[in-house]
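the two lines:
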Amino acid sequence: MRQIPDRTHRLRRLVAVLGLGAIMTVAVAADQPVFAASFETGWAAYQKGDFAAALKEWRPLADRGDTRAQFNLGVMYEEGRGVAEDRSQAIQWWTKAADAGDAQAQHNLGMAYLGGGGVTQSYDTAIQWLERASNGGLARSQYSLGKMYSYGLGIAKDEAAAFKWIMKAAESGVHQAQYNLGKIYRDGRGVARDNTAAIRWFRTAAAKGYAKAEFNLGNMYRDGRGVAPNPKASTEWYLRAAQRGHKQAQNEVGLRLASGTGTARDEVEALKWFIIAARGGPDVADVNKQALWRKVGKTARERAEALARSWKRTR
Amino acid sequence: MAKSFRAFSLLFALLLLTTAPTAVVAAADEQQAAQFLDRLSSNALHALSAPETTLEQKESAVRKILADNFDLNVIGRFVIGPAWRKASEEQRDQYQTLFREFVLRTYSRRLGGYSGQRFVVTGTRGIGKSDILVTTRIKRPSGPPIDAGWRVRSGANGYKILDVVVSGVSMVVTQRSEFRAVLRREGFDGLIEVLRLQVSKFSARRG
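prediction for all of em together
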């Protein structure tokens, strides 16, 4: 038999809730100017590096439940600003803010539990906090969660879940997520392979100067995946990534300049790029450098070395 | 694996032992190392006390000073321990890039807020085979002074910092034990993923 709801009881609860709400509204309204003023005073002090003053403003706010102040206090304890570094205090403040629904606090807590800083490492707790922040729409958490599913970090590997979260983060404009989504479409992981979509997401990330996306566009144009093969466009994308310090792209540009593929042949420029690419240590670029070094004359070597010295990466 | 771990532990123990004042470092070198820290202090003071600079600008100035004066490649390798040898070229590359970002971000935030506080060199001594430990003291307007020790090594590009010891706690040893825990659980690729995620933490905010 269905139970008949106790109307009187429900009504009484409704009144209580409304009443409490009204009281709270009044209280918050009365407090608001004070809250805002001292939070701002704290922020100004923080910007000046006067952390003791910031702490003085924010601590009472944090004690009264202001989540911004609680979050910032957590940061100050973690980074040792105005207080001795104390990660367990950071965790306590972030937990207060996170419980009250602060998404950034939830994210930082997730990261703390992931790495085990100031807490006992726990993937389960890390994932719980990241899920809460992700469901609340925080893009960085969505991306982090996606990467954890994609790698299987403390959680069963799940490409469909990885795709879902990385897609959300990509749509919110996280460029690493856009680049990763490009790779997911290219490789067909957790979604049907789609080179056109891959190109589109690589382009979105590349438009913001994300070197790995530029490098991958170079590959797509080289191999004719999702686009007609185009050596010139490919070299141009590699060059952009190379200018931003992408080592593999620098090596590719060197090879293309040495052979005149998608660009005019130029051994001095080629040697320049091999020299730059080989700086990180001995690898394939170093082998290419040695080979070209032996081939060209002394003047070309000197010019390439001078060009490499004065080269500056673009940001 | 267990054997190489033991061998490494032994090596590490030896390393600690040799930090006793048995090192042979010339007094002239110690003086140079002290001067290096002194210059560093002046540079930092200059960058941090410039009027009308935002916290963000200060942090980026500190970041540059750190990048120029810390040997992050050597530190990055050390904190990994024996796992480094088995890592591929690509893994090492990815790791070093992320480690660099991780350290620069963490410490520029941690140090970027100080202003007008110069640290003074309080002493030097040999440490390890040929390194020098320079001890410094930073006076603070409130609270007790902070004593820090800087392990520096002389190389082709002048002196570089290899470790900072604050109240007896070494930055690299702390980092090392954290990373080793991750390496044990997740292996090298897992550590790379964790580092990649860790740099996404949020800092203080206005609203």
